């Protein structure tokens, strides 16, 4: 066994061979500097594996491989039915390996295995299949002007796409980015988040097995400030698609400006969830719990600001607290009944704790949680699900994204106040509205400044429906037909038919 692979046994007993290299040109390779990053199991802080970390030289190699592949007849001129087949085959291989990939995801990220298997894996499989279906349906247009002219529009790929993904949904985010980029004929250098590279590197095996030509899909691991920055500022990269924090998104945007790259950004949020007096209370409680506690609260569109109309405020808070104490079982992510695993890293764990301190010192009322949750071994980055009430709009915990199992609940009097306060944020990713009044529901959905509004639910997401934000939550859309816009140019071709007149 070379240095590029390591035999591992996961906590659930699953044995497998983990690639440790960067995946460039359909091969796993060492980083030029020999630098590595060690992946940590967030459940017990043990080391899982050290994997090679890309520096600028490795990014150069990956981009060159992607450029060569982009121009190769094997990929550029492939029949679009065959391109679709490659994507279907890739999705099928991911599906066939779903238990293993879910194991790796849970080990590296900390999310419950039941969630990895039931949600994350179907999400990447469905998204890649969905875009496989588009590969032979990227249609141009003929535009009639006069008999003297023929004008038509072809949709062409952008070229080499740099894709930077976060650690909260490694496989899902890879699917959202690879599907639309590949079905439209681009080539890709995708950088995994340094906290969670293992499942992405494993996908390299499946890329090769599916039969993609070398260089079409490259996976690198590496630190944001090194590998990510090298990719975002690379002069031979045509597009950057980024998912992560708003602060980093702004950095990426600046770097992309160097050669005016096309960009798609999906960044942070502090999404409101508004519960009116006339809501179905059980439904509102069920969804608002999921909306903030799912995935350890590490969801960019988490509905982390709950606004409840004063008539049902006390009832709602009591029911929400009950739901947390019975529904948010915290513990070993490989156990069947676990709802909430550890936060992904020590840095995130400490970040959430610092917001807990901030909430206390600013005078909000701590209703539940507010401390690390000690699991059996006393190790790991577990946080007790935390609820603050009596929160005012100027408090840090009301305004800033916490990215943890941490919710703030506040009360309002009128619809006008609810809308105004829901919109009083620099973000605009998601928003939820609970009411049984159909007119009010649609009215408020229109009035809220957000890329997505859920009526009587929270965080519904589907590969067929556009996902993205307004304001400082992002630029552009992923998923659905809208996702194709992010990966194609429309080239206008003017044919002069009139010279003979
Ligand atoms: P977090 O702070 O939660 O880790 P980030 O937004 O910083 O979230 O990270 C999301 C992704 O962006 C990761 O893949 C990370 O490596 C990458 N990243 C971080 N900093 C930079 C940067 N300066 N340039 C490019 N990519 C970066």
TrEMBL record:
The lineage of its organism: Eukaryota, Fungi, Dikarya, Ascomycota, Pezizomycotina. GO terms for biological process: carboxylic acid biosynthetic process; polyamine catabolic process. Belongs to the aldehyde dehydrogenase family. This is aldehyde dehydrogenase (NAD(+)). It comes from Cucurbitaria berberidis CBS 394.84. PROSITE patterns: ALDEHYDE_DEHYDR_GLU (PS00687). Gene3D superfamilies: Aldehyde Dehydrogenase, Chain A, domain 1, Aldehyde Dehydrogenase, Chain A, domain 2. One of its GO terms (molecular function) is aldehyde dehydrogenase (NAD+) activity. Residues 28-493 form the Aldehyde dehydrogenase domain. Coiled coil: none annotated. The active site is at residue 266. Its EC number is 1.2.1.3. Keywords: NAD, Oxidoreductase.
